[in-house]
Amino acid sequence: MKPEISIVIPAYNEEESLPALFEELYPVMEQMGRPFEIIFINDGSKDKTLGLLYDFYKAHPKEVRVIDLNGNFGQHMAIMAGFDYVLGDKIITLDADLQNPPAEIPKLVAEMDAGHDVVGTYRVGRQDPIFRKVASKIVNKITNKIARLNISDYGCMLRGYDRRIIDIINVSKESTTFIPALGQKFAANPIEIPVAHREREMGESKYGLFQLIRLNFDLMTSFSIIPLQMVTMAGMVVSFLSFILVCYMLLRRLILGPEVEGVFTLMAIQFLLTGIVLFSLGIAGEYMGRIYREVSRRPRYAVRKIFEDENGE
Ligand code: UDP
Ligand code: MG
Questions:
Q1: 295-310 pLDDT, tens per residue?
Q2: Which atom of ligand 1 is nearest to the CA of 94?
Q3: Backbone φ/ψ region at 297: left (φ over 0), alpha (ψ -120 to 50), beta
Q4: Whose CA is nearest to atom 16 of ligand 1?
Q5: Which of 134, 199, 288, 307 is the residue whose CA sits 20 to 30 A from 297?
Q6: Is the CB of residue 120 less than 8 Å from the CB of residue 190?
Q7: Which of 7, 8, 12 to mutate to test the pocket of ligand 1 (most atoms within 8 A of CB)?
C-alpha cells in the first residue's frame, strides 16, 4: 500500500539514540492508523548506525527504508536524499537524537489535514547550551530580514511538508541549502506551531562552533544577495566620508600649513578600513564559493545502497 505519511530522518553516528528513537517513533506512527513509511538516511556514519538501521528495516520491511549514503554529505543533503525517495503525500522531517519528541508528529499531521502545506515549528523550553540559544535568536532575526522570510526558529527540524512542496524542493538542485528556509519560500499556506524540546540525552551534537558558523553562512548566502549589496553600500558611505575628509585636509593644508601629528589616528582609521575591506572580500568570497560549487556540478550526494522491500508496497 502506498504510504500516506513519510518520516525522513538523517542519522550521522547516532548509535546511542537510535534504539530509543525507534521505540518511541514506531508506536506513535502505528497509533495514527494511517499508512506510513520511515526513511532513514545514513549520512556516512562511522559507528554502528547502519547496522541498527538495517535491523529496523529487517524487523519492519514494509514501513522502513534505509538509504545508505557513500560518505558524510551533511544533514541537509541527507534530508534531500530522503526527499528524492519519499512516497508519501505528507512528509515530516525529524532529527534522530530525540530532541524533538516523536509524540508531536500527530499535531503536525493534523495541521496538514487542515490544509497547511508547510507546518513550521518552534521549540518551547529549548534545551541547548545557552550560547546556542542566544546565537540562534540573533541569527533568526538577521536571516528573516535578509532572506525576507518569517521563520521563528530556523534550527527546529521537526517540520511537515506537503507533497507539492517536496516536488518543488526536489527540482531545486543547489548543492548547499537550508531546508526549512527552502520549504518556507515555496509555501502557499504555512503555519507555525510550538513543539516540545528535550536535551540531547545520548550521543553528542554534530555541530561544533565552526560547523554552526559555516551552516549559517550557507543559510544567509543561499537565500539573499542583500549581504553583497550592503557591502556595496558600505563602500559608498566610506568613500563619501573619505572624500569629505580629503577636502577638509586640503583646505587645512592651504590655510594652516602642513600637519605632522595624528599619525596614530591615521593608523586607527587605516586599520578600520582594512577590516571593512577584508570583511567585504569575505562576503564576496562566500558568493564566489557558492558559484564555484554550483558550476562544478558534482552530485549532491551519492547513494551506496538502498535497503527496501521490493514487494513492500
Ligand atoms: N546529521 C547528519 N549529518 C551530519 C550532521 C548531522 O545527518 O553531518 C543529523 C544528526 O544525526 C541528527 C540531525 O542531523 O539526526 C541533527 O544533528 P544534531 O542533533 O547533532 O544537531 P543539533 O540538534 O545539535 O543542532
Ligand atoms: Mg539535536
A1: 998 999 999 999 998 7
A2: 15
A3: left
A4: 95
A5: 307
A6: yes
A7: 12
Question: Which residues, listed in sequence order, are joined to residue 40 by a DSSP beta bridge?
Answer: 9, 66
Which residue, judged by its Cα, is nearest atom 23 of ligand 1? 205
Coil, strand or helix at 84? helix
Measured CA to CA, the distance from residue 125 to residue 129 in angstroms comes to: 12
SS3 183: helix
Whether pLDDT at 227 is above 70? yes
User: Quick one: 189 exposed, middle or buried, by C-beta within 10 A (0-12, 13-18, 19+)?
Assistant: exposed
Q: CA 174: distance to chain centroid?
A: 13
Distance CA 306, CA 33 (A): 26
Are 167 and 84 a contacting pair, CB within 8 Å? no
Q: Which ligand has its closest atom nearest to the C-alpha of 96?
A: 1
Q: What is the pLDDT of residues 61-93, one digit of tens each?
A: 999 999 999 999 999 999 999 999 999 999 999
**Amino acid, res. 247:** C
- C-alpha cell, 238: 566610506
User: Backbone dihedral region of 27: left (phi > 0), alpha (psi from -120 to 50 degrees) or beta?
Assistant: alpha
CB under 6 Å to ligand 1: residues? 10-12, 14, 43, 72, 74-75, 78, 95-97, 99, 155, 205-207
